[in-house]
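Help!! Second protein's tokens look totally different from the first
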Amino acid sequence: MLMIRFQRIGRTNDPAFRIVVLEKERAAKAGNIVELLGTYNPLSKALTLNEERVKYWISMGAQPTGSIHSLLISKGVITGNKVNVLPKKSPIKKEVVETVPAETVPAS
């Protein structure tokens, strides 16, 4: 299955991303991409994108990741609802210690 994903480029503490189409089983860093669709810099919010090719690959069955999906919606390339990519927070569970009454414990 094809995915539309980010491929990280750039130096340490200076992230930049390529938006690429590749097989889901392949690592993004491996370089085995099918097509380069654009770039994204999260620090400057600069986005270059080939919108026609994105729509083409989505019509051919490529699935965008959650981050890409939300980015495409905010830029107006596709329509729909954004996807929450952050994990749900679970409340901190308090440890429950059950005490056994002294009457039920057999004396030795």
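Here's the second one for comparison:
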Amino acid sequence: MKPAPLPSSIWTDPLMLLACGLGSGAARFAPGTFGTLVAIPLYWFMQPLSALYYGLITIVLFFIGIGLCGYAARKLNVHDHPGIVWDEIVGYLITMFMAPTGLLWIIVGFALFRLFDIWKPWPIGWLDAKVSGGFGIMIDDVLAGVYAAGLLQLLVFLLP
């Protein structure tokens, strides 16, 4: 069963607007992909930071996301509505932690994150189905980001 489209109130509720990726989650198709695209400019600005600051900001965004995503799920009365994309933003930032600079790696990271977020290999799919609330919405994308980051770093190591 396909969830209802996002209500127009996402444009007037600042918390819903954030949870829905500044409106990218309102895309009629592939809202997760559009939400991940919103993460790219954020990553671009965070990229020059030291690993410590990048990691701390990402952790803070994760904890903010637990509250935001939980709030949005309650407002929408749907656990993990596809329009809630804050989790994709954080997942992509995890993917890109300590990634090499350059457009190629931004695209590779994007593709890898979307692959793991859609495919949901174990235990991502299990977590997605079994863990509820804001933490449940966030954790599957966090793990997809960890898987994507691991593969990205392996590619960096293997490619000259």
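Reply: Different proteins will give different token patterns, so don't panic. The chain has one domain: 29-158.
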